[in-house]
Amino acid sequence: MTIGVLSGAQPLVASGKLKLLAVVGSKRNNKFPQVPALSEAVPGFEAPSSWTGIFGPAALPMPLARRISSEFAKAVSDPETREKLFNAGNEPVASTPEQFAESITKEMALVRRIVQATGIKTE
């Protein structure tokens, strides 16, 4: 058994060497709609999401951040790019810098709750 990155597991799933029991998250993955989300098996389960984002220096002017965000949104809207990302097990989502910052804040709060509830300590 393993918990891993879906894009890395895909070749093993395709070859039959690995069986997906669930995907971590609150909803099923579009690439594997027949595989339940872990939240379906464990009511109330909430896992930190898996995402990739673009960061810049703290002093990055907001107009430039918005332009970069807009260009990124265009790129992930391209049908060929979307298909490649989807085939790798990713679900591309574009957001504004403000929405991304809000997502990070929510993720940090969730991870904080997990650490406090489990008693995880740094070593």
Describe this structure in words.
With 123 residues, this protein is mostly helical. Helices cover 50% and strands 0% of the residues. The protein has 5 helices and no strands.
The gist of it:
The protein has helices spanning 6-15, 38-41, 62-77, 79-87, 97-118. By secondary structure, the chain is an all-alpha fold.
Query: What is the helical fraction, as a range of percent?
Result: 40-55%
SSE run: HHHHH
Total beta-strand segments: 0
The averaged pLDDT comes out at 86
Number of helices: 5
Distance between the termini: 26 Å
Beta-strand portion reads: under 5%
Q: Quick one: biggest sheet?
A: none
Shape: flat
Radius of gyration: 17 Å
Judged by helices, strands and strand pairing, the structural class is: mainly alpha
Low-pLDDT regions: none
List the helices and strands and how they pair.
Blueprint: H1 6-15, H2 38-41, H3 62-77, H4 79-87, H5 97-118
Key descriptive features of the protein:
single chain; mainly alpha; 5 helices; flat
